[in-house]
Every structure is written in C-alpha cells, then in structure tokens.
C-alpha cells in the first residue's frame, strides 16, 4: 500500500473573504489533525489568481476516502463547504511513486 497525495483546488464562495475562510478552515484543520493517516498538509493560494490549492499526504487511499465520506455528515466539513464555491472544486487522489523527506 502506498501513500496518497490529495490535491484539491477551489475558490471561495461569493461574498466570502479570506478572513472568514480562515476561521472556518482552522476548525476543519483541527478535524483533519484528529484523523488517522494524515501525514502532512499545506494550503496555498495561487499567486496570480483567487484559486486555493490544498495538498494533503495520506498514509493510504482508505484514509483519504474516510475523510471524503465524512464531508456528508461531519459539521466541520460541512461548514467549510459553506465558504467554498462547490462548482470550483477539483480534487484528485494520486498514488505516490517517489518522494523525499519533508524537512521544513
């Protein structure tokens, strides 16, 4: 079983500013931190657009899928979706074939 890299791109919902997003995001991050299999996560904003990039390393595909399934019922996941433009979300799950250690 290999580690999995999840990449999600999205934009904020109309009328949501970054300050409001960060408040909701912090609760979501606390939820992710409690999930088994989370190895590493970075959230970034593209320099030339209003698109966000969420990069998550999971120990396994099952770990990533467990969180995906929780979006339907977990309040912190649902709260996050209220500040994100659902139509802009693009998510991929990728099996890692090579990587270096994270030193930073």
Automatic annotation (TrEMBL):
Q: What is this protein called?
A: ABM domain-containing protein
From what superkingdom does this record's organism come? Bacteria
């Amino acid at each position: 079983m290999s580690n999995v890299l999840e990449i999600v791109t999205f934009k904020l919902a109309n009328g949501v500013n970054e300050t409001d997003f960060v408040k909701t995001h912090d609760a979501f991050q606390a939820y992710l931190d409690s999930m088994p299999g989370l190895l590493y996560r970075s959230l970034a904003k593209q320099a030339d657009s209003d698109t966000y990039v969420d990069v998550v390393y999971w120990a396994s595909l099952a770990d990533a899928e467990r969180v995906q399934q929780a979006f339907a019922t977990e309040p912190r996941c649902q709260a996050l979706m209220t500040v994100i433009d659902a139509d802009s979300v693009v998510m991929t799950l990728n099996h890692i074939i090579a990587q270096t250690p994270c030193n930073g």
